[in-house]
């Protein structure tokens, strides 16, 4: 029987890619800082550990926003919420554009993080409109949008800051965010009447229910911790890399940091295949295999850190497989309790960004204390923990199916 919109299992390819593009634009706002972090620090006169507060508080504020706001996706229209949060992001970027002090810039970035919720409504939105056997492929497509957004943010910010001015990066980001927000009413559909007639929990009941839901589904907690380590490694390494390459020892400009991000484009081709692999052998088994490949790449960061060209090897390795870990983590969450998927995703993403916020600061602090060696050592220690947890979940999954 063909899929129909009425069946709740229809999502056109055009809409699927539109959702991926929206998520990419919104997520990109947190990554413009990566290649230009040394220039922003110099402009405001702060050291590496202090400038690390910008991405750290952005991610932690996002975790808080996810906890307080994302559960509303199980009560209110995703369309209305996405528009509201898009407006919040646009205003926050405006605050960053007009900031005249580090404290003002930090405040704008932190508020921006709090409102960066819409991209994390989209997987639950899409999961209710696709057949279960396409969940991995569609999740991978949305992840692809995120990858492209991050890629464009880092490359674009590095080039603009090198040849123009880093402030222009945020001017253009605010304009792009405003245009994206205006497009949302034409892309997202509202809830159907049948869903609106269902009994609704109060806001406090929705938020409070998150803890009981996570207790019922402990695999979401483990997946969230694994992704916190995975995303934390990504942020810590890239922030450390920006400081390392623009240091007096290496002597490169911020545009070079941005150009390195181009190698992440390989993930745009590999991630859908990793999603298909997870559909075939199971999310937990795929995640363990991917995590081993990632650890091998991370182990090369310090030995190859003295050469820009050799650093390309671990960068490609990490950027190729890292998004696959997120895809498998989301699959384990989105396959559970359809009526509570948004809240389960809340727990998963909240853990992810709490870990990412801590790792963002830890990565720049490790660089401040021990340079590139300290940053690389931190990333490897986190990778060992990630592999161990992934192996444990793979063993449990195999035991359930045997």
Commentary on this structure:
This protein is mostly helical and 402 residues long. The protein has helices spanning 13-28, 33-44, 48-51, 53-69, 78-97, 102-115, 118-127, 135-163, 166-187, 193-196, 203-216, 218-245, 254-260, 265-281, 283-298, 308-334, 341-401. It has one domain (13-188, 203-401): MFS general substrate transporter like domains (Growth Hormone, Chain: A), CATH 1.20.1250.20. It is built from 17 helices and no strands. Residues 1-8 and 193-197 have low confidence and may be disordered. Residues 9-400 form the Major facilitator superfamily (MFS) profile domain. InterPro entries: MFS, MFS_dom, MFS_trans_sf. One of its GO terms (molecular function) is transmembrane transporter activity. This is MFS transporter.
SSE inventory with pairings:
Elements: H1 13-28, H2 33-44, H3 48-51, H4 53-69, H5 78-97, H6 102-115, H7 118-127, H8 135-163, H9 166-187, H10 193-196, H11 203-216, H12 218-245, H13 254-260, H14 265-281, H15 283-298, H16 308-334, H17 341-401
Helix pairs in contact: 1-7, 1-8, 1-9, 2-8, 2-12, 2-13, 4-6, 4-17, 5-6, 5-7, 5-9, 7-8, 7-17, 8-9, 8-13, 8-14, 8-16, 11-17, 12-16, 12-17, 14-15, 14-16, 15-16, 15-17, 16-17
């Amino acid at each position: 029987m063909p899929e129909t919109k009425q069946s709740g299992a229809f999502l056109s390819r055009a809409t699927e890619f539109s959702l991926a593009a929206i998520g990419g634009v919104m997520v990109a706002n947190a990554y413009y800082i990566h290649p230009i972090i040394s220039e922003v620090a110099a402009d405001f006169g702060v050291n590496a550990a202090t400038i690390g507060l910008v991405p750290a508080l952005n991610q932690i504020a996002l975790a808080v926003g996810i906890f307080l706001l994302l559960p509303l996706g199980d009560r209110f229209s995703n369309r209305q919420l996405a528009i509201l949060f898009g407006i919040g992001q646009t205003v926050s970027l405006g605050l960053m554009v007009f900031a005249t002090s580090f404290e003002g810039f930090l405040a704008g970035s932190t508020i921006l993080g709090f409102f960066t919720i819409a991209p994390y409504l989209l997987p639950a939105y899409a999961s209710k409109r696709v057949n279960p056997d396409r969940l991995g492929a569609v999740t991978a497509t949305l992840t692809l949008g995120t990858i492209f957004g991050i890629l464009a943010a880092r490359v674009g910010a590095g080039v603009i800051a090198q040849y123009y001015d880093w402030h222009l990066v945020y001017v253009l980001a605010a304009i792009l965010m405003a245009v994206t927000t205006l497009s949302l009413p034409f892309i997202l559909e509202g809830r159907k009447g049948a869903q609106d007639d269902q009994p609704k929990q109060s806001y406090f009941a929705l938020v409070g229910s998150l803890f009981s839901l996570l207790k019922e589904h402990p695999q979401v907690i483990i997946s969230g911790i694994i992704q916190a380590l995975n995303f934390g490694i990504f942020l810590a390494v890239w922030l450390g890399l920006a400081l390392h390459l623009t240091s007096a020892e290496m002597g490169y400009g911020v545009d070079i940091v941005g150009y390195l991000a181009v190698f992440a484009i390989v993930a745009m081709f590999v991630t859908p295949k990793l999603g298909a692999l997870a559909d075939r052998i199971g999310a937990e088994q795929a995640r363990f295999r991917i995590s081993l490949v990632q650890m091998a790449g991370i182990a090369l960061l310090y030995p190859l850190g003295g050469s820009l060209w050799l650093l390309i090897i671990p960068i490609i390795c990490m950027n190729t497989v890292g998004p696959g870990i997120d895809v498998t983590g989301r699959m384990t969450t989105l396959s559970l309790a359809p009526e509570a998927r948004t809240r389960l995703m809340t727990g998963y993403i909240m853990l992810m960004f709490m870990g990412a916020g801590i790792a963002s600061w830890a990565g720049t602090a490790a660089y401040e204390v021990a340079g590139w060696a300290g940053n690389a050592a931190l990333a490897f220690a986190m990778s060992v923990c990630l592999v161990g947890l992934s192996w444990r979940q793979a063993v449990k999954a195999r035991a359930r199916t045997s």
